[in-house]
Amino acid sequence: MEETTGRSTKKKVVVVGGGLVGALNACFFAKRGFDVEVFETREDIRIAKVVKGRSINLALSHRGRQALKHVGMEEKIVSKGIPMHARMIHSLSGKQSPIPYGRKGQFILSVDRANLNKELLTGKIFFYSSAKVFVTYVAAIFLRSDGSNEQIKADLIVGCDGAFSAIRKQFLRRSRFNYSQTYIPHGYMELTMPPINGEFAMKPNYLHIWPRNTFMMIALPNLDKTFTCTLFMPFEEFEKITTGDEVIEFFQKYFPDTIPLIGVDALKTDYFRLPAQAMVSIKCSPYHIGDKCVLMGDAAHAVVPFYGQGMNAGFEDCLVFEEIMDQLNEDFSTVLPEYTRVRVPDDHAIADLAMYNYVEMRAHVNSKWFLFRKRVDNILHFLMPKTITPLYTMVTFTRTRYHEAVDSWHWQNKVRHFLKMCLLFRLCHFFFPAYNLLFRGRCSFCLSILVL
Ligand code: FAD
Ligand code: EGO
Q1: Which of 134, 220, 409, 428 is the S-S candidate for 391 at Cβ 3.0 to 4.6 Å?
Q2: What is the mean pLDDT of the chain?
Q3: What's the confidence (pLDDT) of residue 416?
Q4: Is there a contact between 170 and 136 (Cβ–Cβ < 8 Å)?
Q5: 11-70 pLDDT per residue, tens
Q6: Residue 310 has pLDDT above 90, yes or no
Q7: Strand order in the sheet with 127-130
Q8: In this structure, are residues 203 and 288 in contact, taking their beta carbons and an 8 Å threshold?
Q9: Its family (predicted)?
Q10: Ligand 1 in contact with 41 (CB < 6 A)?
């Protein structure tokens, strides 16, 4: 085994998991001149034709883009993404209403997961293997390929092996490691909406949303002019539907406008192609062991997909790590604890926000409420751009730390409450002149302050 002596030899980093975050991390470490190896259990997606993944396309936003920019990949990825300038809310009657994201020119991108993964792994200098990681210790990982065991030593092991991380399992055996996971009652299923006469079946530059409380569907555009529709509903409801006719009946009730677009026959068969998939929220801390091992991406924090931030947060993990590496001169013994200190509160905040959106949307949000809330957000932001920035905007279009976005949101809620009280007093003055006598003309704003 080669010894690393100070600066003379390259430090060796083993990245476990060649998914989105692992692949991006490999770019970051390679760029720093480290000797990088990526280990992945699935077959090499750079060669594989069909890639079975979790979701087909994803919403890439500012945080993810900033990380890509740092490794010089932003343009390449963005050029193959489809901009979504607004949400398109579909009501039950089939009416479509666009609501732009905050300011003009702001958009999120629909990107192809497999292509993104491939681009991040292509042309890199590291070795890529198909091996099963089964045990990890502090300084070495053990691989099992074709029944034989091999031990790989590294200066740093980066666990990017997803929500069911094998690396994280080793953390669980240790003392003072916090861990929690929650499966939500909803599952998801992806359905493809084909092009019509060679064109997109709906307007392409939107994030299409069908908010129906418990039942939710979204659609993101693909380069081949299809849309990938993702249906979210409780497993219980998925299980109730057992025949093709019941599928149509269900869509007739909740998503009637999509039946002709997806196609009756396609719906009847695609629904039964794959069972609904589970969604889990995972939080843990710390993210590191000594100066040897660190978790990033879903391995550190799986979030439910109701904010479109899972990958973006994972990419930002890599960027934050990179920034700390700069600050602390690549000294893992200080970089790793600092990364945990800085990143845990933010990752926990986005996990909470995503869960909050899930709870909120399933309980209250139909198409009317969605439109109303987003319009009020946009109006308030327009009137008081310095004071009110919608939470969705802070999360999606800025690099405001997630936990600070939450703090700011709480403060804004107080301002909103204050404005609501002012409005209420105004209305009272208007409708009940006796109020003026009662308060002897005192300014309603002052009174509102008392209420606050
Ligand atoms: P993964 O993508 O899960 O990659 C982990 C990799 O590790 C895999 O390739 C796996 O094969 C490999 N692996 C596992 N175990 C081992 C092992 N023992 N040894 C070696 N390799 C191993 N995020 C967004 O930002 N925007 C969205 O719009 C969005 N939409 C989503 C929609 C759905 C339905 C879901 C489920 C998620 C969505 N996400 C979204 C979240 C996003 O998919 C994840 O956050 C992202 O894939 C995390 O990347 P990762 O590399 O950490 O994990
Ligand atoms: C009132 C109205 C309260 C993911 C609206 C909360 C999420 C939530 C899953 C959208 C956008 C990217 C997404 C908005 C809300 C992706 C997203 C949003 C979904 C579902 C998603 C928005 C993939 C919640 N962003 N979002 O503001 O447009 O608002 F609908 Cl089910």
Answers
A1: 409
A2: 89
A3: 80
A4: yes
A5: 999 999 999 999 999 999 999 999 998 888 887 777 666 655 567 999 999 999 999 999
A6: yes
A7: 127-130, 35-40, 12-16, 156-159, 293-295, 288-289
A8: no
A9: Belongs to the aromatic-ring hydroxylase family. KMO subfamily.
A10: yes
State whether the beta carbon of 370 lies less than 6 angstroms from ligand 2. yes
- Provide the pLDDT for residue 219: 98
Q: Which CATH superfamily groups domain 12-85+105-182+280-361?
A: FAD/NAD(P)-binding domain (3.50.50.60)
Residue nearest to ligand 1 atom 53, measured at CA: 162
- Residue owning the nearest CA to atom 15 of ligand 1: 161
Among all bound ligands, the one having the nearest atom to the CA of 64 is: 1
Check whether 441 has a pLDDT greater than 80. no
Nearest-angstrom CA–CA distance, 269 and 261: 15
Report pTM: 0.92
Output 76 or 47, whichever has higher pLDDT: 76
Amino acid (one-letter) located at 324 = I
* 282 CB burial (10 A radius; 0-12, 13-18, 19+): buried
Tell me the CB-side half-sphere exposure of residue 61, using CA atoms within 13 A.
25
The larger pLDDT score, comparing residue 287 to residue 384, is at 287
- Please state, in angstroms and rounded to a whole number, the distance separating the CA atoms of residues 267 and 249: 11
What type of residue is 443?
Answer: C
Structure tokens at 396: 């999606």
Estimate the crossing angle of helix 113-121 against helix 20-31, to 10 degrees.
20
Q: Give the per-residue pLDDT at 145.
A: 60
Q: Is 306 in the pocket of ligand 2 (CB under 6 A)?
A: yes
